Input
Amino acid sequence: MPGMIKLFVGLGNPGPQYEDTRHNAGFWWIDALARDLKLTLVPERTYHGLAARTSIGGHSVWLLEPQTFMNLSGKAVAGLARFFKIAPEEILVAHDELDVVPGQAKLKFGGSHAGHNGLRDIHAQLGSADYWRLRIGIGHPGVKSEVVHWVLKKPLAEQQKAIDEAIVRSLNAFPSLMAGEMDKATMLIHTSKPPRPKPPRREEDGNEAPPG
Output
């Protein structure tokens, strides 16, 4: 069974014109994780991206945002992974996902790239599909021909709010991802809203309330 995650990757396109577009949801996730860990991503020309390295529990952990443009994301991921001998199953890639609604995120291991150009190149460069994906929901425009315009536009305000909230919630799974507790991480991430506490049972006239 795959162990702890050693390389966290966020996918997106570099440059201010793309910064707020749906396709950059992976960058948003890594930015939020870096803030939580009080890390600063810096240019690493060797790995064609912005990167940060830290140590957690005695283990080195990398954060990476490829700066190669989406279609060449694998160049950065494979370059860093090979140099530091990080196996595919020790990599988590956060990316925008058309088939998940804004406000939800899904954790997945392996499988196809489903037409996502960033994942397609990572598949090719790693020579493996056996890495983890954090699928950040951006929703679907409803028409296939509109997908390219959709991912390269800014979300509506309510969609952005939902995406931001999903990112914050999914970061609660970071300790589980670091511990290799992937079942627990999946449960935390797939809970689309924080669980509501059950109301306490009432007692009336000395009798317990009937089971509801």
Remarks:
- Confidence is low (pLDDT under 50) at residues 202-212.
- The domain at 7-194 is CATH 3.40.50.1470 (Rossmann fold).
